[in-house]
Automatic annotation (TrEMBL), chains A, B:
The lineage of its organism: Eukaryota, Metazoa, Chordata, Craniata, Vertebrata. InterPro entries: CBS_dom, CBS_dom_sf, Cl-channel_core, ClC. Signal peptide: none annotated. Its main location: membrane. GO terms for cellular component: early endosome; endosome membrane; Golgi apparatus; plasma membrane; synaptic vesicle. GO terms for molecular function: antiporter activity; ATP binding; voltage-gated chloride channel activity. The keyword Nucleotide-binding applies. It comes from the Eukaryota. The chain crosses the membrane at residues 58-82, 147-172, 193-215, 221-237, 249-273, 285-306, 327-347, 403-423, 430-449, 477-502. The gene is LOC117741766. It is found in: Endosome membrane; Membrane. Pfam families: CBS (PF00571), Voltage_CLC (PF00654). This is Chloride channel protein.
Length: 722, 722
């Protein structure tokens, strides 16, 4: 850390790329933080020199807020555009607006003056494809033609989506949240948040959602927002040159993403805090809050319907677990096949044909007296003269029983089809789909309880709280609680789940049942395994993610984990004043370690610092090119003052400036539990192990992860990257 | 850490109190965590032995949730009882219920059949004192008598409160939040969360709030809930014997406290996370969530009015800053004087006489057509035939102007009187009082804007968004935003503030203005100084609190902060095998350090471990009493195997088991920025400084805090405790 600091001062970035990281490597949080402090100090001390420097330092201080503003504006705008495009393209599968083809069904009938609220679905300007082609709106032929074109459009959209992802941006597939979690924990995946990913993910997200596949847009929107964050980081060297600071911006961008995905700014901040982020200081909390606010505001300004909540949901489904199929080897074929099955099976059932957001909205709603939905076909009391708000429980009519069957089928269909949908190579999210499954199940249970309470109000369980003629069971509430429970079981969110749910529904009074659902679903799900879906995904991909939730309670010590092991060759070290350039080059060539400890001498083994492989390679290369007299037999000095050498000796190479003088050390007796804690909390890449001041070995983040996997009886080789 | 671990195994708590802390000392988080893991491992391995051990281990695993349940139940119950008692005693100052003296005004008239909603204030059963004594309800004499008795009751209540606090539990005064923050950060204040404090704080809180003083009950309720948490910790050795685990429970208890103070469970969890807690793992988040849920549920079950929100507010005021008066030396006199002034000045103004919760409630409300409040005395449009929901802006009537004057006076009065109220030796909170000040200011601004918009709707600022005859300004919303802004400025909360505000008001649609207010007030307040009121309080009291928000950006190194300094005597160390019992005792006697490093020898200075002063003292004392042959000239061995000694030598004392073999070390070149980070994130008490494996010095938490104070040009001597 200090080494990097000294470097800046003495030589002002002498070698390009010193202090940067390779792809698929882990960053050193402490070092990044230290580098930023150095930069900050430099600007502060310069700011006293001139007016211009003062202005520059003020701009630097405010650049964080500016980046947040830009992220909020862009992600809000993109979310709004995606919403409008999905709306239009989803309706395009069914028909077209004659007055203006770029209007969605709702907009088309909205502009029609003759429409009243009740039959907003039917207006002359909006024609189904069958109507347009054959002139007949009804009848078997029209139904088949509509069905066929619906499937055809769906196939076209999904084919376009999977092809674009395949050709232009492979990183644009999936929800992106597991990778963002990994990136935020300090891992480098170049291009994952790049401009191409942003562009292709935005376009293919629209296509994938519009195709009616069993997937959601919320996770991908978080990815899109993080791409925006990364884009704006490149405008300010404060963020583009410091991987630690960049991750602070990305945490806030994730909050903005959830904010626009649900119209839930507070939920977004909490999601980023509870689910996604790794290092989340209070400063980032405030900035996330601001970014989420701006994003929600922008989306609201763009949203042409003005109703900011459920209108944000579109065609989305969900899966609670993973499966691989043989089809996985042929991603395009897989997508086409799954789309075809989805479209063919979804069309006939009214609850799967419509968009999931509309479905959830209907399932959440309580039946008013004027409700025309099939779900609200109750037998009304003839004595009830006028519609009132507080309708007592009523017996179900034939429509309700019919709806129950269709809902049950829809539930089975969704669970099965989403098993095959998830993991396909197109953008796909998780949130709303889980909620749909939960909401269907909840509504079915709700109606069942309601009818039991009506017909058997003398049963003990109903006796005390449900007098006959009272409104004591609200099936819509069961649906809402079911949705929360299902989403909670999949992601293991608690606080952010409840906040998102009530920001979505406005149901602040139901906070207690929602919390109870969140806690219960967490307990039940944890009994099957502690990992939420994102952690499972991270583990499947072998990312080096050190989860803060896993408790490490084993009794191992640092000495059991450190390398070299008993029969390994000795630790590769450099000495402070007895290594030649040749030795150093041989060490670099023979090993692939990402850094080397520097000791006083091989005999004393007293540690004086740590040098990064990348920095050492660059320093030697540059010195060989630019510095006269540096040859293979030159001595490499890490000491403060080089000894006086005979004139005949070649020019020595002084490398103290790339030496980290404050490497992190623990003793060999330190319990691994403490070591894990240190790696987690300080975001280390490696840690040296000493005993009575002697260097014994080294523990890297990968060693820690492997050891943890081993202790949990998992395959330690599943940890793939560094 | 490991030392403590070994100790448990080999000797099963050989000396009483080994591993505990002294009063006003800081705990070592890593050590506590390690001790808990040892305990956990022991239980897990035992659980395979017998059924009974298995049940015990299951009970242990669930004890966390059981404690949460108990905390939720007790704190919810206490909050409910306090609410009812305050309600009754506040009304007792004005009169009494004839049908049952234990009814409050509202309950009294509630049970009266003749009452309609409009004149719920007047029912024959409720009589003012003047009515009861003289038979006259109206007239100057009755007014003066009521006034006199109002002041008398107030004085009686506040006298009782201050006396009880003084005599029985001095820790029960104030809001308690700064101390709880300090305790949660790892400081020990014995008795602060004890049973007596719980009892006295509950009783005196009722008295203080009922007396009508300018103070609130929310902060004290957090203190009460934490006392409950501490009480239940003592039921389980898992929590009572481990200061780290105890603090996890206390964090959750703080969430339960806010949950019942506002009826805002989510807000409570976020408050605990953002404002109070220091170490807040996800597990604690889930448990806090559960405790807050149970507490809110219990309170709702007790609450006799059924309306769970604003009814929770009672007589509370606020101050945004501190002052000390000469009266401070005479706490009882001070309380009596301030109560007298408050009561005398508050009675005549209708906005200060009523309870603050009612005031806030009225200020937040929009004026409906039927509203009888003075604030809603608008000139109605005679053409408007029937009351509608959406009333256009109207010109203000004389009542509104009158109310404006009274509100302005109330604002000045509250700000001034609370300056003198705050810091008195009675329980006093901050939340609702700040909101009242903000709400008054907001409502005044709101009415002003409304009238401007009505009379000058051709002005540019109003032109575009306010057509004549539209309802474009809602003064109630201004009051709500003002309240949020004022509370935010005082406490610097952001996310938890907004969540609490909308859990309080149900105003989910106003989330954007509320967020804007929170961000703006934070920016403005931060311009005057970064510290919120709790941090200021902590600093005033000199608690050793390492704030995670302060950024340390100075360029100092560990070598600049460590002791011994240049001209100090050398570091007090023990050697592993050349110290006698006498030497060790002399070292303990001559120094007051809380621990000593152990080195191989004074020449090599190689560090092998660290021993706590307390543990060393106890070990020597116990050995001298119980172990034969241990005399002053006995050698103390910290090595694994003691050397063979001549038979003539006295019995040696082996102390490896109290030696911490993994003390935390940094190099002398480590930037202080990193050291501060390590202290914060790992919760260390001390850290040893080495160079090339040689021990150079030590840095304690107090040294870090002193250095930080010095760097910020504050008095380093303001850090008082260890």
């Amino acid at each position: 850390m200090n080494g990097a600091g000294n470097l800046m001062d003495f030589l002002d970035e002498p070698f390009p790329d010193v202090g940067t990281y390779e792809d698929f490597h882990t960053i050193d949080w402490l070092r990044e933080k230290s580098r930023d402090t150095d930069r900050h100090r430099k600007i502060t001390s310069k700011s006293k020199e001139s007016m211009w420097e003062l202005i520059k330092s003020l701009l630097d201080a405010w650049s964080g807020w500016v980046v947040m503003l830009l992220i909020g504006l862009l992600s809000g705008t993109l979310a709004g555009v995606i919403d409008l495009a999905v709306d239009w393209m989803t309706d395009l599968k069914e028909g077209v607006c004659l007055s203006a083809f770029w209007y969605s069904h709702e907009q088309c009938c909205w502009t029609s003056n003759e429409t009243t609220f009740d039959d907003r679905d039917k207006c002359p300007q909006w024609q189904t494809w069958a109507e347009l082609m054959t002139g007949h709106a009804e009848g078997g032929g029209a139904y088949v033609l509509n069905y066929f074109l619906y499937v055809l459009w769906a196939l076209l959209f999904s084919f376009l989506a999977v092809s674009l992802v395949r050709v232009f941006a492979p990183y644009a597939c999936g929800s992106g949240i597991p990778e963002i979690k990994t990136i935020l924990s300090g891992f480098i995946i170049r291009g994952y948040l790049g401009k191409w990913t942003l562009l292709i993910k935005t376009v293919t997200l629209v296509l994938a959602v519009s195709s009616g596949l069993s997937l959601g847009k919320e996770g991908p929107l978080v990815h899109v927002a993080c791409c925006c964050g990364n884009l704006f980081c490149s405008l300010f060297s404060k963020y583009s040159k410091n991987e630690g600071k960049r991750r602070e911006v990305l945490s806030a961008a994730a909050a903005a993403g959830v904010s626009v995905a649900f119209g839930a700014p507070i939920g977004g901040v909490l999601f980023s805090l509870e689910e996604v982020s790794y290092y989340f200081p209070l400063k980032t909390l405030w900035r996330s809050f601001f970014a989420a606010l701006v994003a929600a505001f922008t989306l609201r300004a763009i949203n042409p319907f003005g109703n900011s909540r459920l209108v944000l949901f579109y065609v989305e489904y969900h899966t609670p677990w993973y499966m691989t199929t043989q089809l996985g080897k042929y991603p395009v074929l897989e997508v086409i096949a799954v789309t075809a099955i989805t479209a063919v099976l979804a069309f006939p059932n009214p609850y799967t044909r419509r968009s999931t957001s509309e479905l959830i909205s209907e399932l959440f709603n309580d039946c008013g007296a004027l409700e025309s939905s099939q779900l609200c076909d109750y037998v009304n009391n003839p004595n009830m003269s006028r519609p009132v708000d507080d309708i007592p429980d009523r017996p179900a009519g034939p429509g309700v029983y019919n709806a129950l069957w269709q809902l049950a089928l829809a539930l089975v269909f969704k669970i099965v089809i989403t098993i095959f949908t998830f993991g396909m190579k197109i953008p796909s999210g998780l949130f709303i789909p889980s909620m749909a499954v939960g909401a269907i199940a909840g509504r079915i249970v709700g109606i069942a309880v309601e009818q039991m309470a009506y017909h058997h109000h003398d049963w003990i369980i109903f006796k005390n709280w449900c007098r006959p003629g009272a409104d004591c069971v609200t099936p819509g509430l069961y649906a809402m609680v079911g949705a929360a429970a299902c989403l909670g079981g999949v992601t293991r969110m608690t606080v952010s789940l409840v906040v998102i749910m009530f920001e979505l529904t406005g149901g602040l009074e139901y906070i207690v049942p929602l919390m109870a659902a969140a806690v219960t679903s967490k307990w039940v799900a944890d009994a099957f395994g502690k990992e939420g879906i994102y952690e499972s995904h991270i583990q499947l991909n072998g990312y080096p993610y050190l989860d803060v939730r896993d408790e490490f309670t084993h009794r191992t010590l640092a000495t059991d984990v450190m390398r070299p092991r008993r029969n390994d060759p000795p630790l590769a070290v450099l000495t402070q004043d007895s290594t030649t350039v040749e030795d150093a080059e041989a060490l670099i060539k023979d090993t692939d370690y990402s850094g080397f400890p520097v000791v006083v001498s091989r005999e004393s083994e007293r540690l004086i610092g740590f040098v990064q492989r990348r920095d050492l390679t660059l320093a030697i290369k540059t010195a060989r090119q630019k510095q006269d007299g540096v040859v293979s037999s030159s001595m490499v000095y890490f000491t403060e003052d080089a000894q006086q050498l005979p004139a005949s000796d070649p020019q020595p190479l002084k490398l103290r400036r790339i030496l980290n003088l404050s490497p992190f050390t623990v003793t060999d007796h330190t319990p691994m539990e403490t070591v894990v804690d240190i790696f987690r909390k300080l975001g280390l890449r490696q840690c040296l192990v000493t005993r009575s001041g002697r260097l014994l070995g080294i523990i890297t983040k990968k060693d820690v992860l492997r050891h943890m996997a081993q202790m949990m009886n998992q395959d330690p080789e599943s940890i793939m990257f560094n």
